[in-house]
Design a protein that fits this description.
It is a single chain. The chain is mainly alpha-helical. It contains seven helices and no strands. α5 (about 120-125) packs antiparallel against α6 (about 135-140).
Length: about 160
């Protein structure tokens, strides 16, 4: 009976056609120009999350409540890491992402700008001598490459 169901055709409907097999993702050619900016955003996002906690471990300390570090580093870093990784995986697979690249770049730009904006006062304290320059720059530097790279993605793909 199972064999009969396989061979039965409905009148008036054409026989189903087979789709050609698509190559495996590893066999697809990926342009390094498409992959590296997104992978870099993923790495920079992860680094943004780690910066305050690694700084504490190596002695680069800023006198800030840990809740503030979550808002200033973990949330925007998670956004950048997630979007960058998603776009890098999509580029590696050769599949168009469901998230548009200009929109994703814009979200990363805003997250990077958030990190920069929340650290302006820290850099100002370093200028006044109230905070160590090493601590201020350690906490704020990841925002600059995120802003630059995400703006480049928006302008390139937009």
């Amino acid at each position: 009976m199972a064999d009969r169901a396989k061979t039965r055709r409905h009148p008036g409907k054409p026989a189903p056609t087979r789709r050609p097999a698509t190559p495996a993702p590893a066999a697809m050619v990926v342009s390094p120009g498409d992959l590296w900016p997104f992978a870099a955003l993923g790495v920079l996002g992860a680094w943004t999350i780690v910066v305050p906690y690694l700084g504490r471990a190596i002695g680069i300390v800023v006198n800030v409540v840990s809740k503030v570090e979550i808002v200033d580093h973990v949330v925007p870093g998670s956004i950048v890491a997630a979007i960058g990784t998603y776009l890098a995986v999509a580029a590696y697979r050769g599949a168009p992402p469901k998230l548009s690249r200009p929109f994703a770049g814009g979200m990363c730009f805003l997250a990077g700008f958030w990190v920069l904006a929340t650290h302006v006062s820290l850099v100002a304290q370093a200028v006044q001598g109230k905070e160590a320059w090493g601590s201020a720059l350690w906490h704020a530097w990841t925002s600059v490459p995120i802003i630059g790279l995400s703006l480049w993605i928006v302008l390139k793909d937009g």
